[in-house]
Amino acid sequence: MKKLIEIKGLSKSFDDNLVLKSIDLYIRENEFITLLGPSGCGKTTLLRVLAGFEVADEGTVLFDGAYLDDTPPHQRQINTVFQKYALFPHLNVYHNIAFGLKLKKLPKDEIDRLVKEVLKLVKLEGFEHRNIKTLSGGQQQRVAIARAVVNKPKLLLLDEPLAALDLKLRQDMQYELKEMQQALGITFVFVTHDQEEALTMSDTVVVMRDGEILQIGTPEDIYNEPKTRFVASFIGESNIIPGTMLRDYRVKFEGLEFDCVDKGFNLNEAIEVVLRPEDIELKPATDGIVGTVTDIIFKGVHYEIIVDVKGKEYIIHSTDAQRVGDKVSLVFEKEDIHVMRL
Amino acid sequence: MKKHLFGTSLQISLTLLTFFVIYLPIAIIILLSIHDSQYVFTEFGFTFRWYRAILDDRPLMDAIFVTFQIAIISTIVSTLLGTLFAIGIHSLRKSARLRVMVLNNVPVVNPDIVTGIMLFMIFRFIRISFGFPTMLLAHIFFSIPFVILSVLPKLKSLDPNLFDAALDLGATKFKAILYVIVPSIKVGMIAGALIAFTMSIDDFIISYFMKQGEFHNVSTLIYSRLGKRQISPAVFAYNSLVVILTVSIMILFNRMNRNHQKIKGESV
Amino acid sequence: MNSVRRLVWPYLIWLGLLIVVPSVFIVLATISTFHIFNEYSFKFTTESLQFLRDPIFINAFRNSWKYAGMTTLICFFIGYPVAYYFARSENRNKTLYVALLIVPIWSNMIVRIIAWENIFKPVSIINLFGLSFDLIGRDSAIIIAMVSMYLPFMIFPIYAVLDKMDTALIEASRDLGASATQSFFKVTLPLSLGGIVSGVIMTLLPAMTAFALPERIGGGTIILLGNLIEKEIFRGSFSIAATVSFVVMIVMLGLFMLIIRFDKEGETLL
Q1: Residues of chain A with pLDDT under 50
Q2: I want to staple B92 with a disulfide (CB 3.0 to 4.6 A). Which of A156, B96, B267, C63 is the partner?
Q3: pLDDT at position C258, please?
């Protein structure tokens, strides 16, 4: 697929505080890409540079192959859904959505048609004349999306748009946004600190920290093959164990040797191993990694079981309960061993 | 449990005392404006003739005209400029904003007489002719900080992305301010305009330093007449009219506002 | 909204021209022969500063503190409870009542001074009610008139702060075992300090520098700093007017520092 956006060597600082450190990234047409990271990682700033609200100190942004850097925000074919929606409080639903269209001086009946159409898309038919203040958070969210997509941007930026919604609504909106993106055929750049949101919706996830990109990949890649300890612990729960890569496909940790699927390391390179809690199975103690169950918490779908192995705590998710004090063996497949460089 | 520190009855008495002490002069003025004699107070003689006398008092009419002319122009100018400046100040980062606000608050806190002297000196220095131009500039000068002070809190309560949202949807900066920011801070602007208008109408001291020959607003005219002991009750009549008009408008506003709230309350 | 920062510059230039430059003039005129009226000569001299030792100045300085200080104190002890009463009131017309405190400001200040002059002189309109006072030139008359003039300016800032205060704070304090009195002194009063400071400044400074009021109610014998400034500038002794203004500015700066401590952006000044 064609590259819609190319970001090259982008840096930005506020008051000596470097928030973006030479970012390189491209975004393909029709892609749903998520910038994921803790607050302060620079993801929102990157978004604001794309929208044109911030000017980068260094680097450049190409849009459809053309330089975008000197284009003011109001002339970019990019629209934004803001964090707290930024709906215009003095305008009703209709006029909020029609705002951009009116500035383009479209004829009145055309505006009417487009607003109606987009209201249908966001499931708010008949809300034209409602006052913004009388809408629920979820409805305001939909108006904010409608107001942006009605302008038919090539790129839609979404800055933590779901953060203010409650859990159930947030999950519903995740599906709807994904559907909407596919129906509209617009490229979405979605910013969030919520890893679950990122994994559910995205085609590509970009994990950021301290103004740098740590890893780019599909949700599966990011989850299964985290490249660093930070990514591993930020995305889902994980057991991180220090170990040694003996040779290709052979790793040693907890004093034992295991087959694995990783290669390309130096002989006897020190590494860390990630074991996801749901990848570990518990068997009555025989051989391998053996430990004692110290705690068990019911989590609804599964139990969270804490196993003490020679003073180190492992977290295991399992549908089978264990008793505190039981001796157990930790069993896993070689595909479940994820090796990370230090 | 509902025990208050000062005791509610003390609070109520002090409130009544407050209204008494600030309305007593107003009442006296109204009384003077409908009492027939300027010098004899043994018996009350009702008259409306002083109200009629306003129209015949040429200098007073001129001064009233000047007062309102200056009040209206300075209110419009200071509200517009003050709003733009407030938008600029709001966009500053915190430390810079605080520094500008310190400067902004100097004319607010500065005693009128010192402000008067300062403006007197600078206008003299840059040789602006005294009279209407200096008085207008002075009124704009002392009104702007109040407009800024009443607009700024409204700007702060706005969604920080509102301006960007307008740009994002294709508005230029100017249109974003006009179509989005201004309507959202309307209340603050109106409050600021009202303060500016009130201050302008009421000002004596600063205007006093801007006067020139026989050019007067109402305050400076009355003061100059005081010196010459030729106060006509027409002045009291004019003043009573202004007060009665203001009170009526306020009460009317309050009524409208309450009905408005009622209607709103039901529709939600 | 970074792109609209430029709007600040014209305002800074405006303030610089109309505040900073004349302030420099006042300082220069105080410590040198600088004089804007005729020649721009410039030689350091303490001549004007000598005036600060003149009995006329000392008397005016003392009077200003005396009358303005008393007025401010009285305004505070009346104004705080009134502001408190309005802030806690649940009367649906309370905004109207608060607004009614502004109305007297719409009545011309000079006219209000004339009204008080009428009240305090023996032959006046209040004779109609069988009353007659002879208080012109008395301290009590000046202070009563000043309280009447400046009381609203004490009430507004305190009311603004108290009205915005979260009543849950008082409930929390009571919940933690404080009595009503303790809650007031430990929570309400400290939180309203910003409003009090603004109120004090808005009362004290105008009262100190008033000139029409002391002139009329004082019967021409009581001189405050404001009277001095007014007399001297129109008599043409610019340097003395500037010197007295300089003293007033120093008092103002002192009070201003207080405001900045309590209320950085001056939100209580309205």
Answers
A1: none
A2: B96
A3: 82
Same-domain check for residues C6 and C102: no
Give the best residue of C97, C110, C202, C262 to mutate against chain B (max B CB count within 10 A): C110
Token output for B117: 């002297």
CA distance linking residue B17 with residue A22, whole number of Å: 69
Contacts of B158 in chain A (CB under 8 A): 89
Same domain, B86 and B114: yes
Tell me the C-alpha distance between A147 and B149, whole Å. Answer: 33
User: Quick one: pLDDT band at residue C191, thresholds 50, 70, 90?
Assistant: confident
How does pLDDT run across A8-28, given as a tens digit for each residue?
999 999 888 899 999 999 999
So what's the pLDDT on residue B264?
Answer: 46
pLDDT for residue B265: 42
Contact A175, A3 (CB under 8 A): no
Examine the domain organization and report whether B220 and B260 are in the same domain.
Answer: no
Do B120 and B227 belong together in one domain? yes
Q: Which domain holds residue C33?
A: 1-45
How many residue pairs bridge chain A and chain B with CB atoms within 8 Å of each other? 71
Chain centroid to CA A100? 29
ipTM of the complex: 0.88
Closest residue on chain B to A84 (Cα): B159
> What's chain A's average pLDDT?
91
Distance of CA B256 to the CA centre of its chain: 22
Give the structural domain span for B251: 1-57+232-268
CA dist C228 and C240 (Å) reads 9
Tally the domains of chain C: 2
Q: In 3D, which of A252, A322, A309, A254 has the Cα closest to residue A283?
A: A322
Identify whether residues B169 and B153 lie together within a single domain: yes
Does residue C38 surpass a pLDDT of 80?
Answer: no
Task: Give the gap in angstroms from C-alpha C55 to the nearest C-alpha of chain B.
Answer: 22
What is the predicted pLDDT for the residue at C36? 64
Give the pairing of strands A32-36 and A212-217: unpaired
Which one of B28, B110, B117 has the shortest CB-CB distance to C252? Answer: B110
Q: Is the confidence at residue C37, as pLDDT, over 70? A: no
DSSP code of residue A210: T
Residue C81 is nearest to which of B10, B24, B177, comparing CB atoms? B10
Contact C210, C146 (CB under 8 A): yes
Is residue B88 within 8 A of residue B147, CB to CB? The reply is no
Which of B1, B18, B198 to substitute to test the interface with C, most C CBs within 10 Å? B18
Q: How many CB atoms lie within 10 A of CB A59?
A: 17
Contact C8 B100 (CB under 8 A): yes
| Chain B residues within 8 Å of chain A (Cβ atoms) | 93, 158-162, 164-172, 175, 179-180, 183-184, 186, 268
C270 contacts B84? CB cut-off 8 A: no
Pairwise CA distance, residues A24 & A183, whole Å: 29
Same domain, C155 and C29: no
Q: What is the DSSP annotation of chain B?
A: ----SS-HHHHHHHHHHHHHHHHHHHHHHHHHHHBS-SS--SS--B--HHHHHHHH-HHHHHHHHHHHHHHHHHHHHHHHHHHHHHHHHHTS-HHHHHHHHHHHHHHHHS-HHHHHHHHHHHHHHTTPPTTHHHHHHHHHHHHHHHHHHHHHHHHHTS-TTHHHHHHHTT--HHHHIIIIIHHHTHHHHHHHHHHHHHHHHH--HHHHHH-BTTB--HHHHHHHHHHTT---HHHHHHHHHHHHHHHHHHHHHHHHHHHHHHHHHHH-
Residue B267 pLDDT: 36
In the prediction, which pLDDT does C1 show? Answer: 53
Chain A closest CA to B79's CA: distance in Å?
A: 20
Mean per-residue pLDDT for C230-243?
A: 85
Residues lower than pLDDT 50 in chain B: 1-3, 264-268
